Amino acid sequence: MRARPFRVAGEGSGSDPDMFAIMLKNLMGVRLSIVSGYPGGAEMNLAMERGEVDGRCGWSWTSIKITHPDWVTEKRINLLLQMALQKSADIPQVPLVMDLTTNDRQRQILKLLLSRQQMGWPFLAPPGLPADRAQALRRAFDETMTDPDFLAEAKERQLEVNPMSGAAIDKLVHELYETASDVTGATKAVIAEGAR
Asked: φ and ψ at 134, to 5 degrees?
């Protein structure tokens, strides 16, 4: 990706596909250009099939498995990089972007940008929620994530269940808020469109 130029599909300014592509270009020296303006994932996939673009950035592995399992089994796509803080157990052969960093600054920037992928879709409660209620909600969530009936239904629907506990999210959010201002400034610069 650093040696050969290629085109990726994007949705528009501020969207994940565009932001991840810009990040790869500016932070990792990837030689890509963005063809932006596709209305969504289905149109970006069609653009790949038509040869309008060579790929896309920020497409979740779960979504690929569910929407295009044939692309995986028939090797119609090449997974080049995992854009996450931790590798997926399903695709250990695909490099993790965190493993390709060359310095601590890159790792800090990537942690700031990719940490929300760790959390996925967190559940939130209002400020001032009594501690016993917060604990009850967390306990119910944790028990649901290990419930055999829930897991069986998720498997049947081909849904990935990879929960992060409330305590782990609290820890991660606290770490993110502790990010030094020079790192947040550098992160903003890395994803700035003008930096392309």
From this structure: -60, -45
